[in-house]
Amino acid sequence: MDKQLTKEQIEELEKQLSCPSGEMGTEVGKNMNESNIGMTLNTIEFLELQNGHQVLELGHGNCGHLDEVLNAGKYMKYFGLEISETMMHEAKNNNQNQEAEFNLYDGINIPFPDNSFNRTFSVNTIYFWANREKLMQEIERTLKPGGICILTYANKDFMKNLPFVGEKFRLYDPKDLEELVSITDLQMIQTLQKEEQVKSKAGEPVLRTYSMTKLRKP
């Protein structure tokens, strides 16, 4: 991408990051997969997946990382939910004939029964949750007892200085997430702090700091 983004380009990028659509959304999804892959792979490792697990991901993008999930054990089943129709179709096209289902949802209500999943995870979506309290309760509802959820997010101090971060973003640090989780019975087990060298959405090299928070349903 051009390093000198106009105000209009920045606003459009912010919109696309929250819900990619159309041709630009496809390109943004590709760039997000590349820039987020380190965060995503570390999250998958932190999930401690086991044979036969039912795994839910919220906001999977083009899901270029599906093999890493399915290869973590035998008889795995992956379910992906997206608010972006563009990303849902990209994920389906990229992952045909896999043990995976991709569906749209409203970003609030998880369309699965209680106690459905052994593991749930989401990378770089929490900034955009339209009703964060309700979605957190839905994560709790659909996790099996003893199930694990990992939420991975770039830290507030890093995000607040990025040019494309505006009103569509709600930023977090571990304390902010702890306050959100407190409305549920989910237990905060551990938060890992990571950093990595990446290119920003404007093409500039930056040192990104991020957190991976592990939650458990009693």
From TrEMBL:
<dbReference type="InterPro" id="IPR029063">
    <property type="entry name" value="SAM-dependent_MTases_sf"/>
</dbReference>
<dbReference type="Pfam" id="PF08241">
    <property type="entry name" value="Methyltransf_11"/>
</dbReference>
<dbReference type="GO" id="GO:0003838">
    <property type="term" value="F:sterol 24-C-methyltransferase activity"/>
</dbReference>
<protein>
    <submittedName>
        <fullName>Class I SAM-dependent methyltransferase</fullName>
    </submittedName>
</protein>
<keyword id="KW-0489">Methyltransferase</keyword>
<dbReference type="InterPro" id="IPR013216">
    <property type="entry name" value="Methyltransf_11"/>
</dbReference>
<feature type="domain" description="Methyltransferase type 11">
    <location>
        <begin position="56"/>
        <end position="151"/>
    </location>
</feature>
<keyword id="KW-0808">Transferase</keyword>
<dbReference type="GO" id="GO:0016126">
    <property type="term" value="P:sterol biosynthetic process"/>
</dbReference>
<dbReference type="InterPro" id="IPR050447">
    <property type="entry name" value="Erg6_SMT_methyltransf"/>
</dbReference>
<dbReference type="GO" id="GO:0032259">
    <property type="term" value="P:methylation"/>
</dbReference>
